[in-house]
Amino acid sequence: xxxxxxxxxxxxxxxxxxxxxxxxxxxxxxxxxxxxxxxxxxxxxxxxxxxxxxxxxxxxxxxxxxxxxxxxxxxxxxxxxxxxxxxxxxxxxxxxxxx
Amino acid sequence: xxxxxxxxxxxxxxxxxxxxxxxxxxxxxxxxxxxxxxxxxxxxxxxxxxxxxxxxxxxxxxxxxxxxxxxxxxxxxxxxxxxxxxxxxxx
Amino acid sequence: xxxxxxxxxxxxxxxxxxxxxxxxxxxxxxxxxxxxxxxxxxxxxxxxxxxxxxxxxxxxxxxxxxxxxxxxxxxxxxxxxxxxxxxxxxxxxxxxxxxxxxxxxxxxxxxxxxxxxxxxxxxxxxxxxxxxxxxxxxxxxxxxxxxxxxxxxxxxxxxxxxxxxxxxxxxxxxxxxxxxxxxxxxxxxxxxxxxxxxxxxxxxxxxxxxxxxxxxxxxxxxxxxxxxxxxxxxxxxxxxxxxxxxxxxxxxxxxxxxxxxxxxxxxxxxxxxxxxxxxxxxxxxxxxxxxxxxxxxxxxxxxxxxxxxxxxxxxxxxxx
Lengths: 99, 91, 320
Fold this sequence. Notes:
The structure holds 3 protein chains of 3 kinds. By secondary structure, chain A is mainly α.
């Protein structure tokens, strides 16, 4: 293993950690709004770190560009969908968790 | 690194179980939609890890195709198929 | 067994088991909406499985059409099942279990079981050391006009399969239209975020559709994948509340719908008239013909999928 391998491994592990955290949140959080919060962490940060880790190891700049494009697209979709679902849930009177 | 990437892909595949649990359980339609959203993002990550592990560039195109269409199903849900939900209290 | 084999073995087992469970849950779901969500998850898992058995082309088609567009189509169909306004009841409608429904279900189940048994029998009857047709395809790849073996099979060696697939898609739309189509959706108020999403995403979708079409000549990609992405652009536009001008929903729409199938038929006639067998392109022109076919098929597939999603009846004359 050379230095870039270690860097990639750490980034990938951080990414997978955020995916795990997002899934735990999706399972454990009490209502739609809090679950949305958990979900966007795995979407944005989790995939972001995985993409960064893979970019360190990528064989060409073209691949790095494609990885970034994929991440940007998921970011765009994730942010818009989270907003639309939260907005729709509020309009439909889904109650928030208070305790 | 190949083994490491594959092991991480396997780990992600297993976290999908949590997403499926939420899809089965609900309770609201929005919860189910969320779970398939997280399922999709994890699938993108798995595909990218597999692409790197096996050196198959074509798998990045598969991930790209899904990243492009990820929003469409969810938007169709929000705009067309989402009924009134008043009886879904927090747990 | 070394560690790599072990990890791959576990990976494949989890995928296979996940597929079976998801399929079972999706089919047995008492609520249609839950069934659709599980079906989308099944498609995602299936596409990972296709990757594992070394079929990235199928994985690409599965993820674009199965997970991407079919989910949206099914959700649109679900919203039309109830009255004009979908209610909690229509979302969670339990599947009807009358006597007739039960008879129909058991008939379907026995038919499917018979097909499954036949498939298992066929797989067991296959010679174990068969090499398939891969070598023959590779040997005649030079004459096919493209460098991707999958595209060569789909559009040259077995072109009539693809022709029939295009016709099936067209037939599905004609089915919807022959029932008079569905009334137009009430125009929902514009949402700023959705509008912005569409404005950013639509150009990227169009560009990616062209990229997938181009990639099809030498790598996984091609008309169906590119068409699905193109169709998704149409679906997103329709969801964001943008409407096609009436003057384009008459002849223009119909021309786009039949561009792919009719070009295919024209080439089929041409090859017969030129004294060759059906869809046997002259090798020196095969490349150009396949590219033309792919472009026309992409336009038709994209338009058909978007029209299926909108599902409104066509107009009889321009602007009427």
